[in-house]
Amino acid sequence: MPYLPHSEEDVRRALETIGVESIDALFDALPATLRNPDIDLPPAMDETTLLAHLRSLAARDRPAGPNFLGGGMRRHFIPSVTPHLALQSEFVTAYTPYQPEVAQGILQATFEYQTMMSELTGLAVSNASMYDGATATAEAALLAVRQTRRERVLVSRGVHPETRAILATYLEALDIRIDTLDLEHLATPVPTVDGDVACVIVQQPNFLGSLEAMAALTQAAHASGALLVAVVDPLGLAVLTPPGAYGADIAVGDGQTIGNPTAFGGPSFGFMVVTDALLRQLPGRLVGETVDVDGRRAFVLTLQAREQHIRRSKARSNICSNHQLTALMATVNLAALGPQGLREAAAASLRQAHRLADRLRSQGADLAGDVRFFNEFTVRTRRPGSVVRSALAARGVHAGVPVGSEYRLGNAVVLAATELVSDEDIEQLVGALTAEGELEGREVGHG
Amino acid sequence: MADTSAPSFPTIFERSRPGRRAARPPHFDEPDLAALLGEDQVRAAPPRLPEVSELDLVRHFTQLAHRQFSIDGNVYPLGSCTMKYNPKVHEEAARLFQDLHPQQAPETAQGTLRLLYELQRDLGALTGMDAVSLQPAAGAHGELTGILMIRAYHRARGEGKQRRVVLVPDGAHDTNPATAAMAGYRVVEVPSDATGEVDLDAFTRALGPEVAAVMLTNPNTVGVFETRILEIARRAHEAGAQLYYDGANLNAIVGRVRPGDMGFDVVHLNLHKTFTTPHGGGGPGTGPVGVKAHLAEFLPVPLVVEADQGYRLSEDVPKSIGRMRSFVGNVGNLIRAYAYIRTLGLEGLRRVSGHAVLNANYLRVRMQQAGYTVPFDRLNMHEFVAQPPEGLHTLDIAKALLDEGMHPMTVYFPLIVKEAMMVEPTETESLETLDAYAEALGRVLRRAAEDEGYLAGAPYHTPVRRLDEVRAARRPVLRYAFGDDPGSAD
Questions:
Q1: Which of A194, A234, B248, B472 could link A290 by a cystine bridge, Cβ 3.0 to 4.6 Å?
Q2: Is A173 within 8 Å of B148 (Cβ atoms)?
Q3: Whether residue A247 is found in the same domain as residue A385
Q4: How far does B391 lie from chain A, in Å, by closest CA?
Q5: CA atoms within 13 A on the CB side of B179
Q6: Selected residues 372-411 of chain B with any CB under 8 Å from a CB in chain A
Q7: Is the ipTM, as predicted for this complex, more than 0.90?
């Protein structure tokens, strides 16, 4: 049997040592009437058969072709050295670093990760990672509720619809009220923030791709004692003003764009970075620097009194396993790219997205408002987004994240471009959209 | 007296030199950022990311890997954590699917969707549950999902306001009470009896019209199967409570008895435990949740469904608790678990639980022979709790084991046993490895008897020695200090 080392002789010796007759006898405590049920599972496969089966499944997927998909994840350049180093078996097959003397690899890499996320966001303290950007956003809202002792949050409709759905799931459980801020001209207007609001949550760039006036939104939140939670794309922070610079209290987001494959949605990782003032409210693991008995610098999980394994029902969150390995992918990737490489990737991404936008405009496309954007933007289409996406897929191009009716734009899709998109790819997408008649005769919405 | 001359291992930031770099993205001329983004949106100063050559990068992370203990390196018998071997073919399996984008048109993702659909079905069959969600990103996340569904169920029946309490045994995983609190519940602990099982009388007294759920791990955290589980389920249901199965220990019974058959209404699985997806140094885990039919209308969305035009993601769940995370789930790990189930089949999985329990009992006996005591001295399941001889501390023994090149067991958990050593060898270790582990534990005791200061000073031969953890917490340094800032958080 694969992965099980025991010979029949081993089993016999072990049973004799224990003093029982058979392996089944070890299970006498199980309810007799329920034992060994007939479970309908396919028969076992050897490795060759398994891989052939998996390849036949993978052949039904069509990941290849020019890719303009954004909406939460994007394909970016990941050099070969990144997975090679991050996926060394010592990292892959380790547990949470509870014995720091033999876990300096993961502990130090996490300390380096925390430093890099602090640098990217311009905020003081990063935890060791969360599940994904959406759950990190929900945890940020809960943090704000704890910190301010207020039980209402304002969230911009520009925050990814799935993120808002998860926020609702988490907050509804604690009877915390959520009010949604409608967009005007594809961006969040500066709201009136009442004194009972714990935080204002804004995504930068927002789901439609537009840039938000983060400084003004932050001021409005702070004026009434609310926190500002910035949901950010870490790759974008190479060229965009970091949350710390406009006074955000918490930066969260999904780390996929800085070093993980899209993997049909996961695993990537979420990040959370906060000001010094919020350190004690931070959920999840933290790695700190210290020394060993010989005076050598060393790293260790610290401030654990915030966490579930110490505080049980009084913990900041129930999070236990975070997303260490995918965060390590980002750590290695950021070190591989360095400040220059990350900036080049972000700038090229921005350049290609604007080139695509210009080409579409020249074909008569309606870009749903004259707004500034980073590397994703919204374009109106003749047919509903999911139909457009399928039609483009049939032409070998992956593009067109559907824009929901809540945005009142009529039929529209979000398009993204990255540094992996060539000028030829752009022409292929423009050609496909034109051939489908998507750029003309569309219903005019009210953005 | 600390020897401050001992060399410290450099950080990546200390290896950095201006102008160096490892990787280059495709080249494009840089656009005019201020013109395209607006002056006020452009970052003023670049982030201080490291600047290193590719070889420096390789050396840094390779040397860090050498400073890291792993299951591939040696035995790692953390109780409850299930550090079993992670098959390499699973990594290849996951790579086959890793380029798919979650926003692709579903007709271009039929292979992955079919795999996920089959996995939902197989996990349901293995747990005796009627429907499964693959969404949760970790075991604790699965717990939250399950408890939120139970909450929605009681609300739908008009009992939401009345049922405000979740019962957990005193030996429960710490995530259980933390989860219940996150879902707005008050937590009441139920004591264990002298045999290590839930105290049935105390449990019955704790039940009442205010109890929403009972969270149980079976076998429990001391490695004992709750033999009165059918009675516990009957009494919980009679009181109107839902029974939650913490699947952290499913690996002890997989294929042999199903949570659904024992009367559980909800189960979460830790794919990184029973189904051997790698732990990755602390995640990503994956925590699918299965439910009985009466809870299926509350499942989180999306679910993978089979339709006329093939497989697709469906949000058509009438009273769904909503979404728990973005997209469908930790697909990379779901693929690995699928590969494992396909490799072993039912007979193989049954043998997995059989040998896991065999190995744990074997190591229990060998540790008892080596001088350790076992507070619940009975046949255990996949793990057991031991204690060091009177007067010795578990922490010291754990540190001494590090010098033997072996990883300690889980220490000081569960809280109900003094100086607890919670040991789970798993089914993938050979008897020779278990013998060596017990012998090392015996050797530690003998050295401790010969040399009074030995244990307190251990470890001696690890990359770093015992750490000043108090200093780390009192003066938190949570990021590298670049010279011009203090780097300190407080």
A1: B472
A2: yes
A3: no
A4: 22
A5: 29
A6: 379, 381, 398-399, 402, 407-408, 410
A7: yes
Whether the CB of B43 is below 8 Å from some CB of chain A: the reply is: yes
In a shared domain, residues A284 and A411: no
* Domains contained in chain B, CATH given: 89-344 (3.40.640.10), 347-472 (3.90.1150.10)
Judging contacts by C-beta atoms under 8 Å, the chain A residues touching residue B407 are 99, 102
Q: Nearest residue on chain A to B481, judged by CA atoms?
A: A115
Write the DSSP string, B101-136.
Answer: -TTS-GGGBHHHHHHHHHHHHHHHHHHT-SEEE---
Q: Count of H helices and E strands in chain A?
A: 12, 14
Note whether B108 contacts A: Cβ–Cβ < 8 A.
yes
pLDDT tens-digit map of B309-348: 899 999 999 999 999 999 999 999 999 999 999 999 999 9
Would A254 be classed as within a structural domain? yes
Structure tokens of A98? 């509870």
Q: Does A232 map to a domain? A: yes
**Of B64, B73, B381, B372, residue with least CA distance to A27:** B381
Q: How many CB pairs under 8 A join A and B?
A: 691
Please tell me the distance from the alpha carbon of residue A407 to that of residue A186, in angstroms, as a whole number: 8
- pLDDT tens-digit map of A383-412: 999 999 999 999 999 999 999 999 999 999
Q: Indicate if A135 and A259 belong to the same structural domain.
A: yes
> Chain B within 8 Å of A223 (Cβ-Cβ)?
no
Mean pLDDT per segment of 10 residues, for chain A of length 447 residues?
Answer: 95 98 97 96 97 98 97 98 98 96 98 98 98 98 97 98 97 94 97 97 98 98 98 98 98 98 97 97 96 97 83 79 94 98 98 97 90 97 97 98 97 98 98 94 44
Q: By residue range, what is the domain housing residue A376?
A: 67-74+338-435
What's the domain count of chain A? 2
CB within 8 Å of chain B, chain A residues 94-113 = 94-106, 108-109, 111-112
Which residues are within 8 A (CB) of A187 and not within 5 positions of it... i.e. 6 or more apart? A158, A206, A210, A211, A212, A213, A371
CA distances from B113 to A59, B93, B133 (A): 12, 15, 13
Judged by CB atoms closer than 8 Å, whether chains meet at A31 and B398 is answered as no
Alpha carbon separation from A270 to A128, A228, A366 (Å, rounded): 9, 18, 34
The predicted-structure confidence for A173-207, as pLDDT tens digits, reads as follows 889 999 999 999 999 999 999 999 999 999 999 99
